[in-house]
Design goal:
This protein has 505 residues and is an alpha/beta fold. The chain contains 19 helices and 16 strands.
């Protein structure tokens, strides 16, 4: 193990958020990283558990799974970091994780939720140790391009360049297949490029990884609307040109709010808003003043965000950086408890209320937490020009349905409230994949409008067409998308070669 007793003697120390008043004025990284000595000290806290829950990625209760879905060899590389054997740590990490530069920045740290040190104290800061390893790897040549020595002569098309598509392409290319990735946006990266704000995931890191993949032999085609009007990207043509096709287009069917006034101007889906902000910044070389001319702007507006998840928080942080007059975040469900309850024991994922960076910035800017719980929208109010002016809300309370036993939220009469709003951002989740792309390839959808496959499989009903990521499992985390991409790649490889040597933990 690391340093015996270190978890008792050394306190958990993580990277610090930059001061609120500083970071809320730009789209630069949120955090200040620890130095190598501090990182080694933190790695020494790992106990090398006999049963390492941190790397299991298993469900222990009703909450989301705890532990790493990629089954990263966490105790091993924590030990190596403590010993200063960074090259070996990088090698261990690369065995299971093709894109730690992303997961170490945006993953909610499922590994840490399952860390044994967290049972009675503070968990090991594993995610940050992962970040230190991959950045060491880039700085010292261990992450340099490694093209395959031989090619199989097989061609695979991957539709979508988000985390699952990139993971699929990476694995299949390593096997020696010729991989072409089609992306409908102007830049590859999908969710990583346009769905996550720059302060959480700097786009230079996405571009860095894409450049490595290009040098390893993967072809990226952007502005390619597969299944659209351009015959060059017709589904039939793609299937003719390639031996296998992997659909990794994400869960892009955003959940709408169907209430009176929905057609008012000034109402956007969160994903479109975040894409607009990031694209404008990139097109303007990260100069906020120039970018402000092109984005969906929150400047001097009352902003209402519908949805209390991570995407909603990202909208809060982005709106503040754009100079919003006020920000309110509406959440249908009750506020989670501040501490674990007896019904939510370790190593389950902790169902507790957290104050994320965006909410912290809103508290600093406006003097209160922006979240309003147990509330839903009744009406969008507009003026004679059709412009949004306000949002009418109503309070909710939970009741147990006697027939189903499920808890349902019902409106409380007389609790209506009018919130001024010139900009509404809908961050209410997604309802599955876009039917258009599914229809283009003729693949079946399940009841959740995700692409249908056998349990634990990635082959669709259409021969030689596979799927992976959110398009397959529904809206989920980046780390789960990467796992699915790796597993789908192995299944594709087996179908092409009759066997596969692609290792998956």
């Amino acid at each position: 193990m690391g340093k015996p007793g270190a978890f008792l003697d050394i306190d958990r120390v993580t990277h610090e958020l930059r001061p609120v008043e500083e970071r809320s004025r730009d789209f630069d990284p949120l955090y200040v990283e620890l130095d190598d000595d501090a990182r080694r000290a933190q790695a020494s806290r790992c106990m090398m558990c006999g049963v390492a829950f941190c790397q299991m990625g298993a469900s222990f209760g009703k909450a989301r799974p705890s532990g790493c879905p990629l089954h990263n060899l966490i105790p091993e590389w924590n030990e190596l970091v403590y010993r200063g054997r960074w090259d070996e740590a990088a090698e261990r990490l690369s065995l299971t994780s093709p894109m730690p530069e992303f997961t170490s920045r945006v993953c909610p740290a499922l590994c840490e939720a399952a860390c044994t040190c967290g049972l009675h104290g503070d968990p090991v800061c594993t995610r940050e140790n992962e970040l230190s390893i991959i950045e060491y790897a880039y700085q010292n040549g261990y992450a340099d391009p490694k093209p395959p020595r031989t090619r199989t002569g097989k061609k695979v098309a991957v539709i979508g360049s988000g985390p699952s598509g990139l993971a699929t392409a990476d694995q299949l290319n390593k096997r020696g297949h010729s991989v072409t990735v089609f992306e409908r946006s102007d830049r590859p990266g999908g969710l990583l490029m346009y769905g996550i704000p720059n302060m959480k995931l700097e786009k230079r890191f996405v571009e860095r990884k894409i450049d490595v993949m290009k040098q390893e032999g993967i072809t990226f085609v952007t502005n390619a609307e597969v299944g659209g009007e351009n015959p060059e990207y017709a589904a039939s043509r793609i299937m003719e040109k390639f031996d296998r096709v992997v659909l990794a287009c994400g869960s892009a069917n955003a959940r709408n709010i169907d209430v009176p006034g929905r057609d008012a101007s000034g109402i956007y889906f969160a994903v479109d808003y975040l894409k607009s902000a990031t694209k404008s910044l990139l097109d303007a070389n990260m100069e906020i003043r120039k970018a402000a001319k092109n984005w969906i702007s929150a400047r001097d507006k009352n902003v209402v965000i519908i949805g209390g998840g991570d995407t909603g928080n990202d909208c809060v942080g982005t709106a503040i950086r754009q100079g919003a007059k006020n920000v309110i975040q509406i959440e249908m469900m009750p506020k989670a408890p501040d501490k674990r309850t007896e019904s939510n024991p370790w190593p389950e994922w902790p169902r507790v209320c957290k104050v994320d960076y965006g909410q912290e910035e809103a508290i600093d800017q406006f003097g209160k937490d922006p979240r309003i719980y147990e509330t839903t929208v009744k009406e969008f109010i507009r003026n004679e020009k059709g412009e949004l002016t306000a949002v009418k809300t109503i309070k909710l309370h939970g009741e147990v349905d006697k027939k189903t036993g499920r808890r349902v939220m019902k409106e409380i009469e007389g609790t209506e409230q009018i919130l001024p709003a010139e900009l509404v951002l809908i961050a209410a989740g997604f309802l599955g994949c876009e039917k258009r792309i599914a229809d283009a390839f003729g693949v079946e959808l399940n009841a959740r409008t995700n692409v249908n496959t056998e349990a634990g499989k990635y082959q669709t009903n259409v021969p030689h067409v596979f799927t992976a990521g959110d398009m397959h499992r529904g809206q989920s985390l980046v780390v789960w998308a990467i796992r699915e991409g790796r597993e789908a790649a192995r299944e594709v490889d087996e179908s092409l070669m009759g066997y596969s040597n692609l290792g998956i933990q």
